[in-house]
């Protein structure tokens, strides 16, 4: 998507993964999604490419106590301002704002239920440059047990308009205020972690999902590479979905439309 517009505030613009072994991560995701990797100067992580376009980042986590996880980043023209707004709304500042050379400014936030997400103030790095091809980012969903607290947090911080999904218990879609509510304008989803089928030790999180041509084949490939199947494949109104963990434990989703 050469020349694609910059992202409006509150729209997911980047996703990256902190791993104990970044080389192993490049092997796993390179084989699964066909990603090729480069290391832009000053980025501190490997960028994954679909064709000529960056779609994700992988890096070795600096502290073994940190979670092995994918992190979704939301665009903003001012990471410091939005971080302060999130903290005032009941979130927790995890790190930043950190200036990443000329690339941009990054901050990490935990929502009131503990799900961590990023804020990205672009410099020369605008974020995703491809969103339609297999291997590209597809969607994100906040997974929480505390929707009564989490919903107003995101709707205040990002000025989202909320939209409950008809016929889908516990699911909500969010659109930026200027976009208007509805399925066609949504940029983020929220699902409630059900007590009867989700382990109590599973923390709240933001689940990143990637496009694939065939969900079943992607699951088979992930299992061959040492990953684990957590859910699916199952049909949804938006395509066939599966939730996986890679060979180091980072959880992500795949979806075939």
Brief sketch in words of this structure:
The chain is an alpha+beta fold and 257 residues long.
The best one-word shape is globular
| % residues in beta strands | 35-45%
**How many E strands?**
16
Order of helices and strands: EHEEEEHEEEEHEEEEHEEE
Low-pLDDT segments: none
Q: Per CATH, what is the topology of the largest domain?
A: 2,3-Dihydroxybiphenyl 1,2-Dioxygenase, domain 1
What's the N-to-C terminus distance? 19 Å
How is the biggest beta sheet arranged? 8 strands, mixed
Strand order of the largest sheet: 2-3-4-1-5-8-7-6
The average pLDDT is 92
Q: Please give the share of residues in helix.
A: 10-25%
CATH architecture of the largest domain: Roll
Q: Nearest-angstrom radius of gyration?
A: 17 Å
The total count of helices amounts to 4
CATH homologous superfamily caption of the largest domain = 2,3-Dihydroxybiphenyl 1,2-Dioxygenase, domain 1
Helical/strand content category: alpha+beta
Q: What is the domain total for the residues?
A: 2
The CATH first-level class of the largest domain comes to: Alpha Beta
